[in-house]
Every structure is written in structure tokens, then in C-alpha cells.
Design brief:
32% of the residues lie in helices and 23% in strands. Strands 9, 12, 15, 16, 17, 18 and 19 form a seven-stranded mixed beta sheet that branches. The chain has a four-stranded antiparallel beta sheet with strand order 1-8-6-3, with no helix packed on it. Strands 5-4-2-7 form a four-stranded antiparallel beta sheet, with no helix packed on it. The protein starts with a strand and ends with a helix. It has eleven helices and 19 strands. The longest helix has 18 residues. The chain has 424 residues and is an alpha+beta fold. It has two domains: 183 residues, OB fold (Dihydrolipoamide Acetyltransferase, E2P), CATH 2.40.50; 220 residues, Chloramphenicol acetyltransferase-like domain (Chloramphenicol Acetyltransferase), CATH 3.30.559.
């Protein structure tokens, strides 16, 4: 008797999710606790594990469907049980029947792989005319990534593009295309304009809603300063090897900025506070939301009690979150709460920006790229590695004087890291 696979509990106040991707197809063997589908919630992607070892016999929803917590998502049959045989095309029937040669099985397997490609990977396959079945995927469970496709395209020899395009665009296995008309895989004619509509993921919809709500609710203002990174760069260069040897993690810039924010928040507590109704809630702790780039959008996992953490603890926490975000393993609890946000656009080359606060927080610090610039120092023009800092804040709670004071305290701590050690 098949075993039902239900949508698991997704976290506090989350009642539904969207099926982002099926990781197993009907007829695939699954192991106990092996993920069969990926669900997208308002905050994170959640994998649904198989409750038993067996064979996926039925999918009850399609990718993109919305499912409620507790709904039956799929059914798992006994190991070796065959999935219901499709009857709509001869090729599908032939793909499941035993054959003397391996061509039907290869065609079915290849088409199934093509159907599981994400939109970005699918576009890369079409644009570069590569066969996805011939590429070894580096993503989770061997799935193809865009970089896999681009790497294969760079190293491949010239080949006919038509079969690849037909393969990727097909919705079901079909007969080989005739060799004469190969227009399906041909590049777009010069001047041809194309459009593609892709449904927004649930996470992207939530990000859009929350950012717009922040603009509509808070009185947003941004103040800027620049900081000489010479002292931090020298400290990292001097101690990075010893630090990594002792703690097993690289010494990065984020640890310095988290410690500087913790120090500055003691002098300007409103930056680490929030508005709740007609009250101001102050925190005697610092839970820093660190903006991390994930495959499906920007997420902000929380480093809790960052004010009481060492440099090594901060760096380890951020590195762990970065890995979980890349692997799609962040949970709702990882991003719950947060009293202040730090966003580092500099890793992508940003020179300057006006970040938007993450409600109900009242402020966000934006870091940017480091570049050598001429500055006046002691009456002389010198070249220094400079970074622009931006503090966006809710003017309903934080006055301009407080915002500038906070940013100056951060600047002073970064330019003289000794302040971080003597709490000055």
C-alpha cells in the first residue's frame, strides 16, 4: 500500500508553500529521508524527505502549485514498484518497455533531465546549444547549474544545435526531429525581439512586498560616510595565518564591522531599537541580520548575541550561514528576529547604495567595495583604501544627529581597531 508524503510543518505562522521543484520523478527509487521535492515558503526553501524507502509512484501537484501544510504531496510505493504507465504518446510507452538497445531509455532519461532544468539553466542550454544529458551537474543531487552549462559550452566542439533545443523544449519524449528543418534550435534572427514570462517565486514575492511596505511605513533616510580601511587590512594581513590556524576560519571584514556596530549601538541605542505601536522597544543585545545571497534571492539569517561573540565566533557563524544559503538549507528559525542589519554590496562591486531597512528593524548598515582613492591627510594628498558606508534608518525613531553619531562611531572603530578591544 502506498505511503502518503505530506507537506511538513514549515515554521511559525507559515501555512502554505509553493512547489519549487520536484527532485524525484514517478518511478524513481528513493531512500529513507531522501528529498523528493523542494518547497518555497515566504522565507526559505524546504526539502520534503521521503518517510520510507521505496519508489515514487505518484505526484499529486505540479511545480508552481500552492500547497497547504498537511496536504498529501505524493505517494511512495514499495521498492521496485512501477509508476503508472503514461499513455499519451508512443515514445512514452516505448521509454518504459524493455528494448534490445538502450536508445529509448536514453531518450527518456535525457528528456526527464531536461524537464527538471531551472529556467536560468534552460535558457543557458538553449543559448549555448549543449546537450544537458552529457554534462555532469555540480548542484545538489547532481542537478545542473548555469555554471555547469557555461563551462561545457566553452569546452565543447561545434555540434548541431537542433536536437538539443528540441530536447529541452519538449514537454514529453518524442520522435527524433527531421534533419532538414533545423530552425527550432537556430539562434534568433538579427533584430528579433523575444520575451519570457517567469512566475515570481514565493520568496521573491515576499521580498517585494516587505520592501515596499518598509517604504510605505517608515520615514526612510540615508546618511553616508567613508572609512579608511588601512588599519583593518594591515591587521588582517598580519594575523590572518595565525587566526586561521587557531580557529579554522579566515579572518574577514565582517567581524570587524559587527564588533564596531555593537560598540556604536551602546552609544546610540535607538539604532538597535524598533517601533511597536506607540512604544519604542530597546534591546540590550545585538542580533545582527547579515544579508546573504542565495540562489533564489537575498536572505538575512541572524547572528544572535553578536555583541557577546568573539571575532572567530562571528566569522564561523557567517560562514555557516553562507554555506546553508548556497545549499538551500536555511530554515525559518535561522532568519527569525534580528535587531539590526548589515548588507555588504561590496562583494558584488557596489560603490555606493541606499539600503532599505528590514522591518521591524529601524536601521541597516551598507558596506561597499574598497578602492584606492586620494585623500587629504596631515596636509598632504595620500592614497588610501577607502570604503563608503551608508546608514539607512527610520527617521520616526532615529534623529539625524543620532544616525551621524552612530556612523562616526563605526568609522572610528574601523580606522582604529584598538577601540574594539578597550571598549572606547
Amino acid at each position: 500500500m502506498p505511503t502518503d508524503v505530506t507537506v511538513p510543518t514549515l515554521g511559525e505562522s507559515i501555512t502554505e508553500a509553493t512547489i519549487g521543484q520536484w527532485l524525484k520523478a514517478p518511478g524513481d527509487a528513493v531512500a529513507l529521508d531522501e528529498p523528493i521535492a523542494s518547497l518555497e515558503t515566504d522565507k526559505v526553501s524546504v526539502e520534503v524527505p521521503s518517510p520510507i524507502a521505496g519508489t515514487l509512484s505518484e505526484q499529486l501537484f505540479k511545480e508552481g502549485d500552492t500547497v497547504a501544510v498537511g496536504a498529501i504531496l505524493a505517494r511512495i510505493g514499495e521498492a521496485g514498484a512501477a509508476a503508472p504507465a503514461p499513455t499519451d504518446t508512443p515514445a512514452q510507452a516505448g521509454a518504459q518497455a524493455p528494448a534490445a538497445n538502450s536508445a529509448p531509455q536514453l531518450e527518456a532519461a535525457t528528456t526527464d533531465a531536461a524537464l527538471r532544468l531551472s529556467p536560468a539553466v534552460r535558457r543557458a542550454v538553449l543559448a549555448n546549444h549543449v546537450d544537458p544529458s552529457a554534462i555532469k551537474g555540480s548542484g545538489r543531487d547532481g542537478r545542473l547549474t548555469k555554471d555547469d552549462v557555461l563551462g561545457a559550452a566553452k569546452s565543447k566542439t561545434d555540434s548541431a544545435p537542433a536536437p538539443v533545443a528540441s530536447l529541452v523544449e519538449a514537454k514529453t519524449p518524442s520522435s527524433p526531429a527531421p534533419s532538414a528543418p533545423a530552425s527550432a534550435g537556430a539562434p534568433a534572427a538579427s533584430g528579433e525581439r523575444r520575451e519570457e514570462r517567469v512566475k515570481m517565486t514565493r520568496m521573491r514575492q515576499t521580498i517585494a512586498t516587505r520592501l515596499k511596505d518598509a517604504q510605505n511605513t517608515a520615514a526612510l533616510l540615508t546618511t553616508f560616510n567613508d572609512v579608511d580601511m588601512s588599519a583593518v587590512i594591515d591587521a588582517r594581513a598580519r594575523y590572518k595565518d595565525l587566526f586561521e590556524k587557531k580557529h579554522g576560519i579566515r579572518l574577514g571584514f565582517m567581524g570587524f564591522f559587527v564588533k564596531a556596530v555593537a560598540l556604536a549601538a551602546k552609544d546610540v541605542p535607538s539604532v538597535n531599537a524598533r517601533i511597536e505601536g506607540d512604544e519604542i522597544v530597546y534591546h540590550d543585545y545585538l542580533d545582527v541580520s547579515v544579508a546573504v545571497s542565495a540562489p533564489k534571492g537575498l536572505v538575512v539569517p541572524v547572528v544572535r548575541n553578536a555583541d557577546a561573540m568573539s571575532f572567530a565566533e562571528i566569522e564561523k557563524a557567517i560562514a555557516a550561514y553562507g554555506k546553508k544559503a548556497k545549499d538551500g538549507q536555511l530554515t525559518a528559525d535561522d532568519m527569525k528576529g534580528g535587531t539590526f542589519t548589515i548588507s555588504n554590496g561590496g562583494v558584488f562591486g557596489s560603490l555606493l547604495s541606499t539600503p532599505i531597512i528590514n522591518p521591524p528593524q529601524s536601521a541597516v548598515l551598507g558596506m561597499h567595495r574598497i578602492e584606492d582613492r586620494p585623500i587629504a591627510k596631515d596636509g598632504q594628498v595620500v592614497i588610501r583604501p577607502m570604503m563608503y558606508l551608508a546608514l539607512s534608518y527610520d527617521h520616526r525613531l532615529i534623529d539625524g544627529r543620532e544616525a551621524v553619531t552612530f556612523l562616526v562611531r563605526v568609522k572610528e572603530a574601523i580606522e582604529d581597531p584598538t577601540r574594539l578591544l578597550i571598549d572606547l
